[in-house]
Each structure stands twice: as structure tokens, then as C-alpha cells.
Amino acid sequence: MPHEEAKIKLFTIQEANALLPQVHSALKTLRELRAVILRTQAQIEIEEMTGADSNGRLTETAQSTIEKCMVKFQNQTSQFEENLGILLGLGAHLKDLDLGLVDFYTRRDSEIVFLCWKEGEAQIRHWHTPREGYKNRKPL
């Protein structure tokens, strides 16, 4: 079977900027889902710590609660992955959810680089090479 290179989507600055409202919405959804996942995870941990009987074994009630939480947790993480996939499907590459860092591939002269956007910026105004990263981004 011949080796196929992964195809990357290259953007113009205008194309990438046009996607920013969708990217912003996706970041908001991902953060909300992450918060729900973390709450469910904490609920599981609390039940594991407090749901033991006098012999240190989980009670049937605790086991049942943990099982229900695990199903919720799996559904929530699937939703998170699905929404991350939507963002990737746009051609955006999430670098840091907390900071809202997102990169888009572009061509600068003969080199493939990233257009770099940070949530809160009105539009993309920076770029960096894949090796350099956010800390070394340069103005367009």
C-alpha cells in the first residue's frame, strides 16, 4: 500500500479570520464540556472516598452511583472529543484551551507556518513556525 501523507488545509489570512466566530463558539463549548467532565470526575472520586462500609468495601449504593457516573463521564468525554473534532474539521488546531490559542496552517513564501490567534484578539495578527510556537510569534 502506498504511503499517503496527511493532507493539511492551508488558509489565507482572510479565510482563517472568517472562521474565528465558529472557533470562538467551539472554545466556549469545549470549556463548558470540560467543566462538566471535571464535576463528574470529582463526584466519582467523592463517592469512592465516602461510599465505603465499615470493612472498607464500597456499598451497593456507592457502586451503583459510581457506575451511573461512569456512564455519564464516558458520554461527556465523547461529546468533548466530538466537539474537538468539529474544531479540527474547520482546519483549526487547538494549542491551549485555557488561553484560547488556536493555529491555522498557511504558506509564508515557500515555508508552511502557523497563523496564530489568541482568544480576545479581534483578528489574526501573528504567525510562527511549527518549531517556534506561541512564545516566538511574530506580527504579520
SSE blueprint:
Blueprint lengths: L12 H38 L9 H31 L1 E5 L4 E8 L2 E8 L7 E3 L9 E2 L1
Antiparallel strand pairs: 1-2, 2-3, 3-4, 4-5
Helix pairs in contact: 1-2
Model description:
It is a single chain. It contains two helices and five strands. The model is unreliable at 1-5 (pLDDT under 50). The protein has a five-stranded antiparallel sheet with strand order 1-2-3-4-5. It is elongated, with a radius of gyration of 21 Å. The protein is 49% helix and 19% strand. With 140 residues, the protein is of the alpha+beta class. It has one domain. The protein has helices spanning 13-50, 60-90, and strands spanning 92-96, 101-108, 111-118, 126-128, 138-139.
Short key terms for the protein model shown above:
single chain; 140 residues; elongated; five-stranded antiparallel beta sheet; disordered N terminus; alpha+beta; 19% strand
**Shape label:** elongated
The side-by-side strand order for the widest beta sheet comes to: 1-2-3-4-5
- Which parts are unreliable, with pLDDT below 50 for 5 consecutive residues or more? 1-5
Order of helices and strands, N to C? HHEEEEE
Helix content: 40-55%
The number of distinct helices, counting runs of at least 4 residues, comes to 2
Q: Report the sheet-strand fraction.
A: 15-25%
Count the domains.
1
Mean pLDDT, nearest integer?
A: 92
- Secondary-structure content class: alpha+beta
Number of strands: 5
Distance between the termini: 41 Å
Report the biggest beta sheet as strand number plus sense, adding barrel if it closes: 5 strands, antiparallel
Radius of gyration in whole Å, from Cα?
Answer: 21 Å
